Write the structure tokens for this entry.
Amino acid sequence: MPWRRKPLPALDLGTRPRGRSRRPVPGTARRGTVAADFRRPRASRGRPIQPGRTTHSEHMAKNITPRAENYNQWYLDVISAGQLADHAPVKGCMVIRPTGFAIWEQMQSRLDRMFKETGHVNAYFPVLIPESFLKREAEHVEGFAPELAVVTHAGGKLLEEPLVVRPTSETVIGHMYAQWIQSYRDLPVLINQWCNVMRWELRTRLFLRTSEFLWQEGHTAHETAEEAEEETLRMLEIYRRFHEELLAMPVLMGRKTDTEKFPGALRTYCVEAMMQDRKALQAGTSHNLGQNFARAFDIQFLDRGNERRHVHTTSWGSSTRMIGGLLMTHSDDDGLVLPPRIAPVQVVIVPLYKNDAERAAVMPFAERVRAELGGVLDPLHIRLDTRDDLRAAERFFYWVQQGVPLRIEVGPRDVGQGAVMLVRRDTREKQSAPLAGLGQTTLALLERIQTDLFERARAFRQANTHRIDDYGEFRELMEGPGGFAEAHWNGSAQVEARIKAETKATIRVIPLDEDPEPGRCMVTGEPSPRRVVFAVAY
RNA sequence: CGGGGUGUGGCGCAGCCUGGUAGCGCACCUGCUUUGGGAGCAGGUGGUCGGAGGUUCGAAUCCUCUCACCCCGACCA
């Protein structure tokens, strides 16, 4: 079963340049092989790390509102302090600053690789789509009409046909697939594109919901319904792995209800995460489009029996919204916290000195530290902070708020001892480690940080997930602390709508359990085949 | 679109009621002293008060119109 949970594999920071000889075979996830190169330090080399003391216990960031005080403001403050993004002059649009974009680039390169390993290729389709295309699929146009941006003029003249700025690309791509696909020999078509899309949102929030956002949209066409469903679930599983293994974000996988599904889809699946305020965030979606778009765009092929048939298509996407989700999963009152595997800067070395004499001693040592780490990490992901116009404390806070998982302080005292100070971003634990074997020590620590972040998030979700059978209790949960509620539902859109109206909670996923537990709808008492997961969502 | 609010140096604000030609904190620049968790002192740069019109000798301040943004609600990756 493609959606079966797999254990978190050994650390693959994915940052060390790899030899060309190791070429992954499409369709097979590289597992273990690469990680084994620098997985755990052998006992003889890895120095035991003493339990450290934390550098401080209180919230120290004076430019960030604590979560407990105002969660929304905290979110905006973390973005601002970390210099991730800024508001653009056009309402609802954002400027992704270099630090934020670097995170996106990391996400892109890791996901892109996972797509290519499963046989997909990249292409690019235009940003402008004839308005009439959207109208060809009834549900699709109904779903997207309210949020379309439309170009009516160009070259100083009124256009004969308005052009919409793509909100998603099923239509143009369907149009092209109709021309490219003639025979079953042309199938499957497995194309992905990285691009921007625009959806005119009424209420926007940086990363989570902006009018323009960056994303990836995969579009595939298949011979049979079974193949399309298989592809849909395969990509869902890739999103699950990406979130859990790279972003350290535990996610629930499942199906969307008809009210929540993609306009035009047969079925929509998604991965859903819990944020620190216990609200749900849909992080990636995978749609089985059936033959809806094939019929609308006349995508037909001659099958093996020489009969003309419509293809079965899928589409799947994930966006810059994941940056918001990543932030709300791990960050704290001091600012951004990034998991090592996705962090653009994994380790920062901060040299400390008071005068030229100390500088002369410390800098070469810091360079040695960098060289040592360069043996195990991609040098691009190691930063040596040579700024001497900033005070030490200011540099510390800068990197704290950039979310760098590990800071290495190198001062005169350390040089004397042939050691460095390692400071974890997540726990703030500070510990001394000798320069000898520092590469392995660092890798082990990064691995630990990665798994700790994931485990912490999973424990949080678990602590805030409740099995609920009584609607009164359900309302109390949603009106009070919030969280995920596993409850029974009779399957009707009316009851779903009533629950939403009364509690703001929606059905986030219908889990893909193989052995569902039947019961009775918490609202109507009617039979229910399985529990579904409710939550208030972003 | 309905309800509430705000527009004054890069950011956050005061001044408006009781008109007299703009001030504070942070940031920024210079210098000295500092530097293992957001330094101190001294000096300095920068705005004509969202926009338009009106009242007045005189408007950030009063009046009219207008624009933008933010928060709450309905829609959404």
In short: DSSP finds 15 helices and 26 strands in chain A. Residues 1-11, 14-57 of chain A have pLDDT under 50 and may be disordered.
